[in-house]
Amino acid sequence: MLLTINNLQASIDGMDILKGINLNVNAGEVHAIMGPNGSGKSTLASVLAGREEYEVTGGEVLFNGKDLLELAPEERAREGLFLAFQYPVEIPGVSTTNFLKTAVNQVREHRGLEPLDAVSFLRLMKEKMQLVEMSQALLNRSLNEGFSGGEKKRNEIFQMAMLEPQLAILDETDSGLDIDALRIVASGVNKLKGKDNAVIVVTHYQRLLDYIVPDFVHVLYKGRIVKSGTKELAMELEEKGYDWIKAEVEAGA
Ligand code: ADP
Ligand code: MG
Ligand code: MG
């Protein structure tokens, strides 16, 4: 098992947000986490990323058998976890290229591999640029500085392709995500996924799942996964919205 989440509970400012999340993710799988606004999807992603403002109040998370919650955010990245918003900051004066050279070699060092020399690094860049249709001009600019929404997305997906994470968690919070950005994310995910890695896509847009076909769909509501299924569940949600799920939960409560 790549990722095991057992009864995970978390709070922010003393407010309980995650109330016992259970989730198992195997290599080779794509999971979608959906749910109405405010249900805790971004909180879950943030807790897995190790963002400080969230307090874990119970449960455990194992990544490749290791206690993920013990690791600092950058250690999680080195272990092979990628979160799209780990690097959303604008870094003036640091190009994507320089940023990635450091990040890629840190991951390699952690895996016991030699750092890439300049030539090999450039070769890898070229290969991945073609894969995600990234332009050289974008790479030469300071990281995220003045990037449009679509450019940020493409850059994010490019970073993911370069780092070859074992598990990528993409939180598609942006309500302004246009169809181009959706396609960029989807094609990146579809190219990354393989038998050795897994992807968790967090979204409340069924539309994204027209492009990414998930193996499993989970509905998060009020801090719990209240329903799991396959892509048919996403289609049902597209058709019927979330009200029937809320009703089921209230009836069962
Ligand atoms: P989702 O991503 O499903 O829309 P979130 O995880 O963003 O949901 O939010 C879940 C709940 O936690 C909401 O009630 C939200 O208001 C609250 N919350 C999330 N982040 C914070 C924060 N930084 N400070 C205070 N409350 C927060
Ligand atoms: Mg939200
Ligand atoms: Mg969110």
TrEMBL record:
Give the UniProt family note: Belongs to the ABC transporter superfamily. Ycf16 family.
Q: Which CDD domains match?
A: ABC_FeS_Assembly (cd03217)
Q: Which residues form a coiled coil?
A: none
Q: Which domain of life is it from?
A: Bacteria
**Gene3D superfamilies documented for this protein:** P-loop containing nucleotide triphosphate hydrolases
Could you list this entry's UniProt keywords, alphabetically sorted.
ATP-binding, Nucleotide-binding
Q: Which SUPFAM superfamilies match?
A: P-loop containing nucleoside triphosphate hydrolases
What gene makes this protein? sufC
Sequence ranges assigned to domain ABC transporter in this UniProt record: 3-247
Record protein name field: Putative ATP-dependent transporter SufC
Statement: the UniProt record of this protein carries the keyword ATP-binding: yes
| Claim: ATP-binding is one of the keywords in the record | yes
Q: Which organism is it from?
A: Cesiribacter andamanensis AMV16
By its UniProt entry, which PANTHER family does this protein fall under?
ABC TRANSPORTER I FAMILY MEMBER 6, CHLOROPLASTIC (PTHR43204)
An annotated Gene Ontology molecular function: ATP binding
